[in-house]
């Protein structure tokens, strides 16, 4: 099992249970190294102090907050530990809200929450109560030098935790909202038909990163000395003039069309890139 990112107690009224958090999702993809073009050796980054005109070691580095231009107050790790709130080791449930009331725009990162042996029974109790009530829990949690508002919800028999953005972190965009246009009922009806024609059951395994697939193919092609075939670019689309005509044409294109199988795409996405031999030309 992967290392936990946080361990402590989840409190629910007078009930407390020891739990651990594990990362629930992370981005993945083809990664590249920075190389010197002349000899293909990896480039090393160094920490440089312009005042002393020398490279410094990590042991010489401290954290500083710039309170005025080029003026800093140094903050030591021990000082940060002294001011950690109680939520650094105890996650207290503050309230329960209906899951439908929480907008996904507030979601940040996802974690699996697992109970320690002593917390299995209260964990199971809270999970079932959330499942049956359709409520979710809002709690506070401190990790990575930050206190988060978190969202606890039942998932696949257990509980998932999502860190959330604070209200002041959710940005507003000027003029965002419903456009001031008049829609015809016939247009809305055909739009509904188009949605129904493209509707399917949610299956996240169907979706994959086409660009990452193409990167893997490019690397394989270069390793084998082949020629890179450019991907066909889409034609530039003109603005829609007749909305109803465009809707009807889109609907006609979906009729009889079978949804592509995802198995082949998943195989490409999961296939490892073959490593080249050490031999160089």
Essential attributes:
single chain, 281 residues, alpha+beta, Ku70, Chain: A, Domain 2, 7-stranded mixed beta barrel, two-stranded antiparallel ribbon, 27% strand
What does this structure look like?
The chain is α+β, with helices and mostly antiparallel strands. Among the domains are: 108 residues, Ku70, Chain: A, Domain 2, CATH 2.40.290.10; 78 residues, no CATH class. A 7-stranded mixed β-barrel has the order 1-2-8-11-10-9-7. A two-stranded antiparallel ribbon has the order 3-4. A two-stranded antiparallel ribbon has the order 5-6. Helix 3 packs parallel to helix 5. The longest helix is centred in the middle third of the chain and has 14 residues.
Helix content: 10-25%
Give the radius of gyration.
27 Å
Low-confidence stretches: 261-266, 277-281
In N-to-C order, the SSE pattern is: EEEEEEHEEHEEEHHHH
For the termini, the CA-CA separation is 42 Å
Q: Which structural class do you get from the secondary structure elements?
A: alpha+beta
Can you tell me the CATH class of the domain at 6-25 and 82-169? Mainly Beta
Mean pLDDT: 86
Task: Describe the sheet with the most strands.
Answer: 7 strands, mixed, barrel
**Outline type:** extended
Strand order of the largest sheet: 1-2-8-11-10-9-7
